[in-house]
Amino acid sequence: xxxxxxxxxxxxxxxxxxxxxxxxxxxxxxxxxxxxxxxxxxxxxxxxxxxxxxxxxxxxxxxxxxxxxxxxxxxxxxxxxxxxxxxxxxxxxxxxxxxxxxxxxxxxxxxxxxxxxxxxxxxxxxxxxxxxxxxxxxxxxxxxxxxxxxxxxxxxxxx
Length: 159
Description:
alpha+beta, 7-stranded mixed β-sheet, 10 strands
């Protein structure tokens, strides 16, 4: 079964905040896990930026952006260099490369879609990442010392 990314997102509950539409990462992941393997048709370039939203506030996890690109040839190394500002791939820390590998999908022509399992793996990386949990906790504990991270407060915007 094929579904467009726009159609997939339109099936999710939406929260409007700060002139943006945000969707639950858990809801998307659960929806994808409930269906057998599907192909998600991709156009050009999509960025999924995670946010943490709770009563304490809203926090953009900018470094956790999931990028999905349609490309004519593999471009992962170029993507890393572009994002890090480095001139050579050898200059990029291995931890950064691994994180970026988990947050980047390419749709190399003639392919036109990604599988649901590819997208699930990326979403699960964000949800389960100790880096995300530590980053969010550090941001919120300053304002509320008893803050406890909860994955159901992870949302995303699509650009």
